[in-house]
Amino acid sequence: MRYDDLIQPDNGQPAIPIQLIEKTGFETWIAAQPDAVRTATKAQKFDGSTGDIAILPGEKPGEWSVVAGVADTRKMALWSLAKLADSLPEGTYRLTDVDAGDAMVGWMLGHYRYQEYLSDPKITGVRVLLVKEPGRIAGAALQAAATALVRDLINRPAADMGPSALEAEARRVGKAYKADITVTSGDALESGYPLIHAVGKAAMREHAPRLIELSWGDDRHPRIAIVGKGITFDSGGLDIKPASGMRIMKKDMGGAAHALALAEMVMAAHLPVRLHMLIAAAENSISGNAFRPGDVIKSRKGITVEIDNTDAEGRLVLADALTKAIEDKPEFIVDFATLTGAARTALGPDLPAMFSNQDDVADNLLSASKAVHDPLWRMPLWAPYSEMLDSDIADTANSGGSFAGAVTAALFMQKFIPDDTPWVHLDTFAWRPTSKPGRPKGGEALGLRAVFRYLTDTYPVR
Fold first, then answer.
1. Could you report the per-residue pLDDT of 315-339, keeping only the tens digit for each?
2. Does 132 participate in catalysis according to the annotation?
3. Which of 23, 241, 298, 415 is catalytic?
């Protein structure tokens, strides 16, 4: 789907009117309406509540319009129009008193469906919205398309979204923007990326692990790195998950999906940066050669890691990928990872836990997240908890136990980041457990648009 086809410039062409009202103004509005409209709203139980929609008769046969309840007609929220785009009949529409603004993205994503595996896909038609700010269409479409890419990749079953499929997606995106792709895979990882190799070696024959790198941009521009956790299925390894915990572990490559989508946004927007995207892709499986609790593995950086829990594998593959990214001396590095259940317990499914070693970067990123309605919540890199990662026989353990799990995971990864390199770690759920307008149950982009806004603010196109 071309999302920019769903929003078009308003040049006065015929369109069905949409009037937006707030519940507090409903009584005044309804009192001014003709009898036919009052009857129609009563029949549809419309009272101006946020999310309510009613179809109103026109003055001539065949004419009709729409009235919809929103929270604030003066400040359109991102998802204000998503339900309209999802439920109205096919056709062309225009807002009567306001312009869509940021809600263009919600209108576009109201059309999103994941139907790749349906034998009889549901055809819902296209609703086009006319707007008076055509200059904003391309930016909204870029956000919608990137969000849809994240959703599509996460929703795809693990059998069809293994490490090789992630590589194919990276090559597809790279080809579109003439980026360079480098892949280190299989046993070639053992000497250079031993932690990635250890996590993925149990699935070596069917789903060989790999480090996927994409490079793009002018070497004269500031170098940034985007890193994604690409565990394409997480059984938990020998510390196997229960069935309930394993059910949606196809989403454990959600960090990789975010990294790839963000890389495409950066390239599509022609940001003046030297981009280095890295995806550490592996399946955490079980076999006779799976890595074990108690094993000690020497990382790419040289730090030795005692495996306390094989289900704390994401931080391992990220450690080697972060080390590689740091070797090229980026001035900013961000990683996305579906890393800990502890972050979900603390913040729920909507709020990615955000960690950063630089206060100014964290503050600017939080401001960016508010600007684009893509919330983040900063969590502490609480240094005293580092002792939870102590090992008797290695430089560090990979798991800090049951307390402050998201914090100790971030502290583990911080061991591989120089203090003077600005770093952001997003522990994102990448999944929506229930459906909302424009946001169906399944894979979800959380934190993606916030980081992109931060990058466009920091590295503006001149």
1. 999 999 999 999 999 999 999 999 9
2. no
3. 241
Binning pLDDT at 50, 70 and 90, where does residue 125 land?
A: confident
User: What's residue 59's pLDDT?
Assistant: 86
Q: Are residues 23 and 170 in the same domain?
A: no
The catalytic residue among 83, 151, 315, 449 is 315
> Tens of pLDDT along 149-163?
999 999 999 999 999
Q: Is 315 annotated in the active site?
A: yes
CA pair distance 328, 38, nearest whole angstrom: 66
Sequence-separated (6 or more) residues with CB below 8 Å from residue 453: 368, 369, 371, 372, 374
Domain count, the chain: 2
Tokens of 232: 């394409």
The mean of the pLDDT values for the chain is 97
* 13, amino acid identity: Q
Q: Which residues pair with 275 in a beta bridge?
A: 216, 224
Q: Give the separation between CA 231 and CA 80, rounded to whole angstroms.
A: 34
Domain boundary among 99, 132, 165: 132
> Do 424 and 365 meet the contact criterion of CB atoms below 8 Å apart?
yes
